[in-house]
Amino acid sequence: MNGAPRWTAVALRLRPPPVAIAILFAALTGGALVLVSGHDPLQAYAEIVRGSLSRDSLPDTLNWATPLVGMTLAAALPLRGGMVNLGGDGQLVIGGLIGALLPLVLPGQGALVSIVALGAAALGAGLYAMLAAWGETRHGIPMLISSLLLSYPAVGVTSYLARFPFRDVATGLPQTPMIPEAARLYTLSGPLDAGSLLIAAIAAAAIFVDRRTVVGYELRMRGKNLRFAGYGGVRLDRQAMRTMFASGAIAGVVGAILVLGSQFRFIDDALLSPSYTWSGLMAALLVGGEPAGAILSALFFSALQTGGFAMQRETSVPRVLTLVLQAIVILFLAMRQGVGRRAS
Description:
By secondary structure, the protein is mainly α. It is built from 14 helices and 2 strands, in the order H-H-H-H-H-H-H-E-E-H-H-H-H-H-H-H. The protein has helices spanning 3-14, 18-36, 41-53, 58-80, 88-105, 111-139, 143-163, 194-212, 214-224, 226-231, 236-263, 276-286, 291-315, 320-343, and strands spanning 187-189, 192-193. Helix 4 runs antiparallel to helix 11 and helix 4 (58-80) packs across helix 12 (276-286). The chain is globular. The relative contact order is 0.20.
């Protein structure tokens, strides 16, 4: 009599996780698209792996992963509590502009200037992100909408400042003057700089807070049942403000790292064109905002994107295939969860 439940439990334990099934489904679908286009899918996937994980390519993958992991965490923190921050672009450019301008006006040189610039970028972007939480808690404006809409004035104002008041007149391009060499982030190896270590520290802190602190427990409780969290004594308004500040602060740090570590000035649209915000949001959605899983998802997406360049170069398969694979993974998981809700 107990045999059937026992075998059912064993089958459930042996069932592959949904993310693995989604990745396999995306690989098969992408392979079919490559085959229809007249190319060898096995060769295309081999070039993605070689172009992202080989000894020569791995530093570039990690360099791409630095901002992507940061923006993934910026999306994952509120998502863990059932909130969605769609304003990453605005918070990213605010942090980038602050990181570009402060080294030009602060007295002194060296690492202290970089630290102050990074801190100011986190503060400015965090406070701006808090506006979305304030609008929802005080005026009932859905955070999903307000966070997205707040990006437009941030992007527009920073673009104006880079094009006119703070433009580098020597170049005539929409960009600020170069920051002094002494204020730039310390280079570790190849394309990697101290910003990679900072993002790694933020990632470790996010995992610790999520798993080992009351703050993390309360945020998970909110994500599972908002009403129960409120009945349990969680101050939901304060929690939303605090979470959005942390999310925006991380995005601001990412913007400052890109400016202080690689671009060395604020260039209009340069922080937005790689779509770190939306790739990070997809990576966070892939695991429901769980920080450790979100970091692994971001690393996976980074490998896909850097490997896509090698695939395009060696096989003539457009690197847009890697973006298609990302989208298929997310859509598969979304459909699976939607079917589950209807069945229940």
